[in-house]
Amino acid sequence: MYDVAIIGAGIIGTSIARALSRYKLSVIVFDKENDVSMGATKANSAIVHGGFAESHAKVKGGLCYKGRKQFDQLDKELNFGFEKIGSLVLAFEEEQLGKLNELYENGLANGLDDLEILDHDQIMAMEPNVNPDVKYALYCKGAGICSPYEMAIAMAENAIVNGVELFLNTEITAIEKNIDSFDLTDQNGKDYQSHYVINAGGVSADKVSQMVGVDSFTITPRTGEYILMVRGSASVINTVLFQMPTKMGKGILVTPTYHSNLMIGPDAVNENTVDKSTHAERLLKIFNEAKHTTDKLNIKQFIRSFTGVRAVSSTDDFIIEATPVTGFINCAGIQSPGLTSSPAITEMVLGLLRELNCPFEEDPRFNPYRAPIITKTELKPVKEIQPFVDIDSSPEKIICRCEQVKEATIIDAMNRGIPVTTVDGIKRRTRSGSGWCQGTFCRPRVAEVMTRVLGHEIDAGFDVEHSGVNRVGKNEIVDYIKSHQND
Predict the structure, then answer these.
(1) Hey, is 312 helix, strand or coil?
(2) Which residue, of 236, 243, 263, 480, has the greatest Cβ tally within 10 A?
(3) What's the sign of the alpha-carbon dihedral 200, 204, 210, 216?
(4) What is the separation of C-alpha 152 from the centre of its chain, rounded to a whole number of angstroms?
(5) DSSP-derived 3-state class of residue 237
(6) Which run of H or of E encompasses 107?
(7) 456 assigned to active site
(8) β-pairing, 182-186 with 191-199?
(9) d(CA 66, CA 479)
(10) pLDDT in tens, 207-225
(11) 399 contacts 445 by C-beta, under 8 angstroms
């Protein structure tokens, strides 16, 4: 019998698990995928939002800034990578100033104290490569960027060190309420018991909720496609650059990633099913819209396209509630700004557990710190690392040339409590395969190290083949955009 069972190991589930590990509670986390952070957490804009865009009348409006304020401390403890670089919402038309003022006032209502409306000259001084037609911008000094999947991995690793159990490849297919506990059954018929259940199931959260008879909402998958440029390409901008938001989202953004790639997107398309493929025509539209922000975009720097899937609730808000089924808590519809809000969502969920008389006794053995797997550093000249590329197995051997990842780093990533069974799992932890060649050189080398550590063969192409996802490649998108430049 567990005290708390969490369904879903994205940023919300892992954040809650880590927070609960501070107490003398037995906690178990389930995820149907082969790793943590495999849903929306793995593919999103990676923005730590200011907190001005969400209506003060909504739950998410009240949680974004509260969450944002905790990122500094969380990064000090968990070393997942966070940087305050600020954000600008750009207005290119005089009549958009009124909307900027509305966002400013809404931000004040949400508690922000670092907002300012800038004029043309102030914007150009801050961002000399922005479209010079810009007239005004809303500047949020404390907004930033992070690596969301590294954050979830860090949360999960720290939770496990502090006693949480993680069951991957485990899909909960049925939940039955007893007098003071729940029986949970997985896809293999194995049963688990827990006093409390937290539903952090992402795009499947409505189906999980329906297992206990709570069907007050539905989740619609909303896809958004992105274009990612090579590391170092983000040097053309200094802040997160938004266009004016629409009813479907915050518009096409141009942003640095934490690791200095330039990223543009997403668009927003509601889907009947989850499709993570990318499409040349959608990427072309994203690229052309992003050029309105800056003309310093070079499609020849493209290395990857990908699709994120947002879990949009029928309430158009976060659903964080103790349901009529006593002990069952829904944490659903966590789309943007879910990453930024995650620390505050976690506090809210723990508050609901306290109201349900979950016993919270602090564990003096709790260790809040987790050492980094990687740190952001400048790449060395190729001639310096080349002698370490083809040497025999050694901690100093360079496995990934593009990102200069050592064998020791890969082995470290595999020995932190989470079973890492795929090459893409190593990629998310070490950046092996994240560079210019996108793993053409290093995927088999990573698989070789993994095979040696795990004692069984690892297929270097497993994730790509298993996913069934068709992504637009470099040559295709370069040719497609070139052929449509004058459309």
Answers:
(1) strand
(2) 263
(3) positive
(4) 8
(5) coil
(6) helix 97-109
(7) no
(8) antiparallel
(9) 45
(10) 999 999 999 999 999 999 9
(11) yes
